[in-house]
Structures
1.
Amino acid sequence: MRAGTGIVSPVPPRAIQVPPNSDLLLGAVCSDKSTPGRTRWQMTADERFANPAGTMQGGMLCAFIDTAMGAAAVTFVSGRKVRIANAEMKVSFLAPVSEGAELTCEAAVVSGGGRVAFVEASVLGPDGTLIARASSTYLFSDRT
């Protein structure tokens, strides 16, 4: 409802809700969610995410990966309103990320059912270098 007008503004439907940290903090953008159980995200390694050595801090990279994998898990159960909880996550860091690098994270559900999904992801640098590999287990609960 618009303040003071009594008019209800229509809210456009969204296939997935983007967590606030994804776009506000990380600047992560979902570029593809057209296939259930698969998503592709992009972000720039901002200088705010750098550690003292000048490379992207691993925790920020983990947040980016979790965003992509969580979205893949949600799209896997298309048509169902669910909450997801990350039960565990493993990340292998394979190459450093310099400030300003454009990153792509591709995530896909490898196996899943009505209550759980196992998801894997890869983060690639601008030249296709494999930056990180990750896997995670997400638990679903129905949302009303």
2.
Amino acid sequence: MSKKPIYDQSWRLLGYNDENDDGSGTVYDSLFRVQGYMQSTPDNSSSVTDALFGYRGRIQQSVDGKQVGYDSMYRVVGYYDPQTNSTYDACYRFVGYGNLLPWLISRG
């Protein structure tokens, strides 16, 4: 369990993702302030909440390992491809390297 840095496409530090093996974890901004939490659910997805535990969205994992992030209204906010270690927004524009879905959902 280590804090993985989150970078945008210009390699600017956005924050940190502290994810456990079971899919739960914490999202921090660049000053290590808590921005949100992730809790794993039985249906192969993770629920994302804000710092006050308000529901912000969900991350669903597909069979091929790719992940899709949804906001609280179940709208797609982004995609993560673990093979390329890249995150894309809802329009498939490159956002940054690493899994930025919790950050995208907590910022939305």
3.
Amino acid sequence: MRVNRWLSKRLIEIRISIAGIRPGLLFIMSPAVVLFGLVQMPPPEGSPAALFMGALGPTGYMTFVKILELVGGVLVTIPRTRNFGLLALYLLGRTQALRCAPLLTILPP
């Protein structure tokens, strides 16, 4: 009986670890692709998205965002710092949504 309880607790701990590691790895791999320049997909010329990215590219803002995503992904992967990582990624997402809101008014439906 004790072995079953111990085993079930251990399986729950493993599931919780996997549930934290998977999104952490996604947030580590996504910025790695951009920071190492593995993929180059520019938006169509003259579109509002191209103008927006053209304005942000020289400033280094996207590099800063990707570095914060990488740090957030590492924090989410480590169980003790998972809450801080989720907080960092949430705040990063909120700032991105607020920054892109004016762009959404320009795009056609």
4.
Amino acid sequence: MAFNDLAEYFDDQLHLPINGVVYDIPSPDHELGLWVTELLSAGVSIRQGIALDPDRKAPKLRFEGSEYDDDSDEAKLYQRLLGSTYGKLRADGVSWPMIKFVAEVTMVWIAAGEAAAEAHWNAGGDPKALAAVLAPESAPANRETRRHGTESTRTATESTTGTRASMRATTSRSPRKRA
């Protein structure tokens, strides 16, 4: 038995409807994908009360030869996340808050998969809905908690049942035919 050509049935874009127009968000490059995944993973760890490893260096995202600056490069980040769709959104007069939300949903899609992005989109950005998908309260306790009934002082990089496992559980996307 041979593998079928993945391109025949796997859609690696995100399709978001806004005002009757469907915008196709392109798949991220390797660097952006890893950066977004690390960023959201750290956020989920913090929400779960998992201490971040202070010795771990944050990944750097580059923009045309320089590193991303949180405050001054917000529009550059959205352009990088959304690719050519950013210009289409602006040309179509989509509001800045909507563009920001599209970028936010795109980050969720990159890090946690289509199901998590869809839940966040359909909840209008409600952080509780996203948290329920990324780090469900009903997630099983880590091994130390189950053994001793207490929370551990683990770090995000030491955890095997926390953040990364929760994020991996939501990253699988069902392959589908392109329209």
